[in-house]
Amino acid sequence: MSLNLAKAVFRLPTLRTEERQALNEALANRQTFTTAEEAAAGGSAHLIKLKIRYHTLQLATVPLAMPGKRPKGRPRKDAPSSPPITRFSWDLTVGEPDPEQLQREIQLRSTFVLVTNHPRRSPRELLATYKRQQTAVEIPVHQSKALPVAPMLLDRPERVRAMGYVLLRAYTAFAVRQRRVRHALAETQQQLISFENRRHPTPTGEVILAHLAEVHTDIVQENGEATRILKVTRTARHLLELLGVPFEAFVLPHASSP
Questions:
Q1: Integer distance in angstroms from the first to the last C-alpha of the chain?
Q2: Cα-based distances in Å from 151 to 102, 135, 162
Q3: What are phi and psi of 48, to 5 degrees?
Q4: What does the pLDDT read at residue 252?
Q5: pLDDT value at residue 30
Q6: N or C: which end of the chain has fewer CB within 10 A?
């Protein structure tokens, strides 16, 4: 537990710097509004999207004097200039993070989930047994982050068990897909041509998922009939062939389709 806690604390300065950069970009690209209420609502909505965790913020509205609109047509030489108009925007006062919130973030990021069929062992004993393994489990980074096991998802024992099953099934699918692709490449003595023409004799699961994400199916309506068109890149097509997945699986109509 102490190792993961140290990693979480070590990452905090970097996370806070990235968050401050996001705040600076938001301030640089903020819009103007007709009323102060609209400016406050717009600023609040923008901050909700940023999901600020490592700073305390105070939102305030500020009036802005802007030049008025020129009337249409060519103005006379002696015509007075248009009176200025008042628009509103929002501003931020950025402060240090709330200590309790910071402690919760550290605890969340230092969480290490282990699913076991030995309920009598303590978490410390399970972690020690896991660390003593001769071969470490190659679990993908994006599946071992703390986000999927946030406290709001694990407030009941049945949710803890359900999350454990979901993680195990996801890792099983990830590992089987990686193994089948590597085995097929070795049998055919081929290499996977990835992004920027990189060649992978043993591609990782992350590389495989990135290419499979490029498979798209478009539905075209013509004369009352729906036609499915498969869009697939060369590498994704190669992966589907290695996995033994027919293209018909993407274009055949489903029961719920039009």
A1: 52
A2: 15, 30, 14
A3: -65, -40
A4: 63
A5: 86
A6: C
C-alpha closest to that of 113 among 103, 101, 123: 123
User: What secondary structure, in 3-state letters, does the chain show?
Assistant: CHHHHHHHHHHHHHHHHHHHHHHHHHHHCCCCECCHHHHHHHHHHHHHHHCCCCCEEEEEEEEEEECCCCCCCCCCCCCCCCCCEEEEEEEEEEECCCHHHHHHHHHHHCCCCCCCCCCCCCHHHHHHHHHCCCCCCCCCHHHCCCHHHCHHHCCCHHHHHHHHHHHHHHHHHHHHHHHHHHHHHHHHCCCEECHHHCEECCCCHHHHHHHHCCCEEEEEEECCEEEEEEECCHHHHHHHHHHCCCCHHHHCCCCCCC
> Model confidence over 64-94: pLDDT tens digits?
888 777 667 676 777 677 778 888 998 888 8
On whether the CB atoms of residues 25 and 131 are closer than 8 A, the answer is no
Compute the distance between CA of residue 86 and CA of residue 35 in angstroms, rounded to an integer: 9
Q: Which residue has the higher pLDDT, 160 or 17?
A: 17
CA–CA distance from 55 to each of 99, 102, 161 (Å)? 10, 9, 34
Instruction: Return the structure tokens found at 124.
Output: 């410390």
At 142, list the tokens.
């994006």
* Helix orientation angle between 205-212 and 157-188, rounded to the nearest 10 degrees: 90
Task: Note the pLDDT of residue 137.
Answer: 52
